[in-house]
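Think of the structure tokens as a kind of shorthand, similar to the way a musician reads notation: each symbol stands for something richer, in this case the local conformation of the backbone. In the example below we present two proteins back to back. Begin with the first one, reading the sequence and then the tokens, and try to describe in your own words what changes along the chain.
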Amino acid sequence: MIRLIQGIDRASHSFEIDRMHTIRRQVFHDRLGWDVKLDDGWEIDEFDDCNPLYLLSIDPETDDVRGSVRLLPTTGPNMLRDVFSNLLEPGMEVASGLIWESSRFSVDPEYACAAERNSCQINQLTAELLLGMAEVGKLIGLSHIVSVYDAMMARIFRRAGCQAETIGRPQRFGKVMAYAGLFATDDEMINALRAAGGISGSVLEKPAPTDPLAALL
């Protein structure tokens, strides 16, 4: 299931936040070797100070954190605008109250190895997080989520039925090709993700907040 935690509520969810940042370090620093900021065993950056909405995959039996993704409005600081702007055409801007950015998509390596894969060869935790983003987008009235991703994630998106509208110009960052893409958050996307992931019904923890957007205003 997907638990939603606002950045301003981090202190009330110390266990989940610690696990999230630790998993991010394991994925982005230890496994992928990215040049990311570390702080006492965590991967954490300046965008974590911007009151993001965190989506955490929670084990329903143990309440452990299995993975996470971070959402930020594109009307404020975000990675596409402030770090990866070279992916956009000159003068192009993604800044809309109807579009939020996803970043730091990560799954605990041990859970990733143990998780089942469906007929589309999609890790169930990956499918859950992707579906969670689409559901949250619909819940708060977004039209799209924008994301920067590499070629490996592009293949995963295709297998998951998560069709992206590529924007700007793909470029090489370090050892990988990076892309910027828009993902719809409508019923068609939600149904495609549920079908590809073999998931019936909502993945959001009950009761889900009725308006996660309110805490960001």
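Once you have a description of the first chain, move to the second and do the same.
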Amino acid sequence: MTNPQLSLVVALLDRSGSMHSIADDTRGGFDSFIGKEREQDGNTVVTLAQFDQQYELVYSSQPIRTVPPLVLQPRGSTALYDAIGRLITDVGAELAAVSEDERPCSVTVVVMTDGHENASKEWTNTAVRELIAQQEKDYQWDFVFLGSNIDAVDVGTDLGFARDKSMTYVSTTVGVTAAFDSVASYQDRKRAQILGAPPVAGFSEADRRRARGE
């Protein structure tokens, strides 16, 4: 049995060159999200990776109380498939290496990007979609997709993310903040479900309007 007091948040953030215009907003939004998660009961650990045409694991299973402010320096192109495939594979291997009672009862993977795939060399759309489906089915991982400058619902569902957990946000302070706030609210609903609340819904239409700046 997994540890019911332990949750893992896995974040994959785009740092390609097109993120430059919202880099400050992304830093602030992510730090605010971590702050809200830090206030919750239970024990949460965080894994953060960033990508352009290269993949970088920033930290792994870091206790949320010691997560540092986000450092994001946009550059390069968008190897989205490679980054998602690498992240899921690495986190899966890390969890497989510990006993079941040390594994988190909740794993939420949040992918945030502002552009289409244009640089992957190792992973394909199909391979990523199959990997996500496997982790959802076998280990009940939860996947969230946030996208700007793209139709994130279409792109996310094409990659295997659930439609109600894929959301488009505008490249503004309002849009970025609303996107991270929506993920924090979703996490709250997941925690309530563990305590007996009704099944968790994905993003609401109100969430989507705020993320679009409406």
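Compare your description with these statements about the second chain. The chain is about 40% helix and 25% strand.
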